[in-house]
Amino acid sequence: MTIGIVGGGQLGRMFIQNGLNYGLTFHVLDPDPEAPCEPIAHKFICADRNDEEAVYQFGQQCDVITIEIENVSIEALKRLEAEGKKVFPQPHVLERIKDKGLQKLFYQEHGIATAPFLLVDSKEEAKQHIDFLPAMQKMRVGGYDGKGVHPLHSEQDIEQGFDAPSVLEKWVPDVAEYAMLVARNESGEVSSFPLVELVFNPEANLVDYLVSPAKVDSGIEVKAREMAESLIAKLDMVGLLAVELFLSKEGELMVNEVAPRPHNSGHHTIEACVSSQFDQLLRSILNWPLGDTKLQTPAAMINLLGEKGHTGKVVYKGMDEAISTSGVYPHVYGKALTKPFRKMGHVTVIGDTREDALAKAEKVKETIKVITE
What CATH architecture is 116-170? Predict the structure, then answer.
């Protein structure tokens, strides 16, 4: 069985690391010759993920094709699917999700709670909606890891924003942010991981750290699971879906956005859950029985981000000191070069209690610094 992955970043690397335990073969296509997947893939093709012919020819050599980033050639995946190849998530699902505007319209059409929004095509069109501010501007396509997101409080902010097709999402004050991962196989079996609580880096607009279990009442957890499982079913999606959620101060849960792949909010599952998100993705796309998602121990996860002012060959300062603490599990992604706020790895910390895990995580966060030589 040969599994093809379009995209060679850290998500693909961890997916392969899990899949090697099953004796499977992995082929990877990515434009970076030094991509994190390159050293461990059975076959590595250096090519543009949006090159239709390159992706099509790559998929011809595989039994099942998946992705680890949304920015890929949808047309190539459609051709492969039409010729009988197993492609998950399915191309029509990926096409909808990679466009944040189509995502929002899908939520609206299917009665899924989300923040109020407008779709605009340019700065000039955005200026016609000053009365809608404050809002968050999100580029419809191409954004990732906090890029393609810009807060709008005034007309001046619009001028500094993106002159591109965008979603203007109404600012919801005082929200807490959570995420839930849900998997679905071809047989229609669905399984979700426990809800996680997210804390964002305000400067980089990406996850700083997360903690599980989330500190919410059981009713919120149940509602979040129902929303996630209903959403993947309505999408008719096979694979793994990360559902990011807002919880308003009034107690209303809203879908922020989704990702049709493994996600930063599920990295802790490798150490903390019976089955990891990467194992669950593999099981779902091969139509195997889904794994046990039980949280075995409280956990926190810290992203290792490149320090400001450091661009170049990477050094992980403080790693020796950090791993001297019990329950600290580093994952370095194999990226040779660092730059400010680039995701270079993560550290999962387990503890006897949620508070214990968080305290250890704060210490690790202060100890490990991603810098240059």
Answer: 2-Layer Sandwich (3.30)
